Amino acid sequence: MMELHGRRVVLGVTGGVAAYKAAELARLLVKADVEVNVVLTEAGAQFVGAATFQAITGRPVWQTLWDSRMDNAMAHIDLSRDADFILIAPATADFLAKLTHGLADDLLSTLCLARDCPLLVAPAMNRQMWQNPATQRNIMQLVNDGVSVLGPGIGEQACGETGAGRMLEATEILDDAIAFLQPKVMAGKRVLITAGPTFEAIDPVRGLTNPSSGKMGFALARACVEAGAQVTLIAGPVTLNTPRGATRIDVTSALQMRDAVMRAVDAADVFIGVAAVADYRPVENVAHKIKKSLVMSIDLIANPDILAEVAARPNAPFCVGFAAESQNLASYAEGKRVAKKLPLVVGNLVQDGLGGDQNAVTLFDENGAHSLPQGDKLEVAREIVKHLAVLAGK
Ligand code: C5P
């Protein structure tokens, strides 16, 4: 959570039942070393009291324009002056309408009107209120005005109905706030990513696969979304959640992965092959379970090299390959870069096997090798994206 360390945030809490999640959000922000100044509207205070936020943030909570604690009586200006952003969670339909029209009849709305920092809102309301053309008009206007809208989520609502309008969970809002702070180095780019292992069936109950977790490919998909790209993620069999904002296509075998890639590749500016594609598949996929015997032999045939095939296309997208090696990283990774005609290869030494949460990689491009510091896979993915954005932008 390095991105949030030392930041200053104004957390605006308006009057919706989702205000209880704002307390958790405040806690997560404080844990990430953020200075959180909570501004409660009158209705917000009906749901969660100021004492809760004060205890969580260790700071005064602001509720009125007429607060005498602010020396110059200008809380509506001073609170946002050094803030990195104002985050309103929950943002009710009423408060969004106020924002849209520039009303300033309480501390939070006045603060928003007088701000000189970005504004993020996490809507929270009943699904009918969300779908109402008035709310949709307001949201469109706010987006046009440069406000970032986080969510809303879809699901069960406090009123017992189900649909779009519920506030995102506190962890999702935190993720979105971090994403908001990422440089938009891939804005307008369309990125196609393969991730995870493939599974090559031997018979209905057996197959060939490998322990790739898909975590690195999914982290890259998330980092690309954060950087402003439109992302399609083609995933082998993995049990990971799809990064919000990415379009996911699930496949099982290398041949299915190849077909999915070839269908999508024309619409891609960048192709990142992270998948650990099985090098071979059984020649025959037997229809019935093979009976046990002391010795069994299976004939294997090489799978197509998806990445090499994409890189060899006329008008190929900018291609990035991965090389997981157990030794001689530099020579093997650079060898792959040249053999597959790739502008960029991400190499890593696999010492503890695949599937961990951390990674240490070296980037190989025509200018040589660049080692990135070890970090969790998302941090590493963000660094890879920054590097590839420079190369792909040329
Ligand atoms: O397996 P290998 O080390 O050659 O993988 C290097 C790169 O090529 C990886 O980015 C991998 O996703 C890609 N690849 C592929 N299709 C294959 C084998 C590898 O796209 N059949």
Topology:
Blueprint: E1 8-13, H1 19-31, E2 35-40, H2 42-47, H3 50-57, H4 75-81, E3 85-91, H5 93-101, H6 107-113, E4 119-123, H7 127-131, H8 133-144, E5 148-149, E6 153-156, E7 162-166, H9 170-181, E8 190-195, E9 200-203, E10 206-208, H10 215-226, E11 230-235, E12 247-250, H11 254-264, E13 270-273, E14 280-282, E15 300-302, H12 306-311, E16 318-325, H13 329-339, E17 344-349, E18 358-359, E19 361-365, E20 368-371, E21 375-376, H14 377-392
Parallel strand pairs: 1-2, 1-3, 3-4, 4-5, 8-11, 8-13, 11-12, 13-16, 16-17
Antiparallel strand pairs: 6-7, 9-10, 14-15, 17-19, 18-21, 19-20
Bound molecules: cytidine-5'-monophosphate.
Residues 194, 254, 273-275, 277, 303, 305-307, 321-323, 336 line the site of cytidine-5'-monophosphate (C5P).
Helix count, DSSP H or I runs of 4 or more residues: 14
> Can you summarize the main beta sheet?
8 strands, mixed
What small molecules accompany the polymer chains? cytidine-5'-monophosphate
Gross morphology: elongated
Number of domains: 2
Structure, explained:
With 394 residues, the chain is α/β, with parallel strands linked by helices. Helix 1 packs parallel to helix 3 and helix 1 (19-31) crosses helix 9 (170-181). The mean pLDDT is 94. The protein has 2 domains: 2-181, Rossmann fold (3-Layer(aba) Sandwich); 190-392, CoaB-like (Rossmann fold), CATH 3.40.50. The chain has helices spanning 19-31, 42-47, 50-57, 75-81, 93-101, 107-113, 127-131, 133-144, 170-181, 215-226, 254-264, 306-311, 329-339, 377-392; strands at residues 8-13, 35-40, 85-91, 119-123, 148-149, 153-156, 162-166, 190-195, 200-203, 206-208, 230-235, 247-250, 270-273, 280-282, 300-302, 318-325, 344-349, 358-359, 361-365, 368-371, 375-376. Helices cover 34% and strands 24% of the residues. Bound molecules: cytidine-5'-monophosphate. The site of cytidine-5'-monophosphate (C5P) has 14 residues, from helix 12 and strand 16.
